[in-house]
Amino acid sequence: MRRAEEDYLRQLDRLLGAHPDKAAIMKEYKLHISEMACDIIYEDESPDLIYKELSMRLGTPEEVAVSWKQELTLTPRKTRWIFAGINLSLFISGILLTFINHTYDWNWTKEIWSLLTSIPVLLMAIYIGFWVLLGYEIGKEFGHQGKKLIKKTFLITVIPNIILMYLVIFNLVPDQWFDPLLDKPFIIACVFCTFILYPVSFAGYLWGKKASL
Predict the structure, then answer these.
(1) Quick one: how many helices (H) and strands (E) in the chain?
(2) Domain that holds residue 154
């Protein structure tokens, strides 16, 4: 490792102080600097130029330390319940629309229902996108701290999904309410998507964590 790279890491180590995730942060930045050393060919090997390049790509040690310290002030609990609330709101909206559509003869609900039941694959793709966004935002905002948070958030947020899947599979809801959707391929697709939600959200978390660097 070149002197400029060692100076950068030494400065970052000092500025992080007693940060609880200091060891993991330093390990990650050492890895990124090693990867950069393989990818970048410097025309001038002067320490000042290398240090400047590191600061441009990763941020100065001061900027990096400040961003990680700011993460300690964020509230994981609030983030967890925001996403759980959004997911629950989607389910409640769907339940209300289903109930109104089969209880009242309102044209506007019929039109919305007809549209939504005609694009199940698109709806599924959008919903998976929501879980990617969930993971991405947690990774971007909390970095290493987000690894435990993404698990807890997933377990809480997925509860409505599991309940609905149970009700549908065991015929505990009126079949005619979901008749346009309850064909075998779609049910299998829904079960499959439920099982991949955590890997999808964790991939989003890794993406967000990388973007935060």
Answers:
(1) 10, 0
(2) 76-211
The owner of tokens 């709806």 is 123
pLDDT tier for residue 61 given thresholds of 50, 70 and 90 = very high
Examine the domain organization and report whether 137 and 197 are in the same domain. Answer: yes
82 and 186 together in one domain? yes
**What is the pTM for the complete model shown?**
0.61
pLDDT over 90 (residue 132)? yes
User: Which of residues 56, 71, 86 is at a domain's end?
Assistant: 71
| Interatomic CA distance for residues 49 and 27, integer angstroms | 23
C-alpha span between 74 and 67 (Å, rounded): 11
14, two tokens: 């000092």
Does residue 5 contact residue 52 with C-beta atoms inside 8 Å?
no
**CB-CB contact of 44 with 118 (8 Å):** no
- How many structural domains does the chain have? 2
Residues 189 and 98 in one domain: yes
3-state SS class at 157: helix
Helix or strand (DSSP H, E) at 15:
helix 3-16
Ranges of H-type helices in 72-183: 76-103, 107-117, 120-142, 146-157, 159-169
pLDDT value for 77? 75
- pLDDT tens-place string over residues 98-124: 889 888 889 998 899 889 888 888 989
Listed residue (150, 147, 116) closest to 133, CA to CA: 150
pLDDT band at residue 182 under the 50/70/90 scheme: low
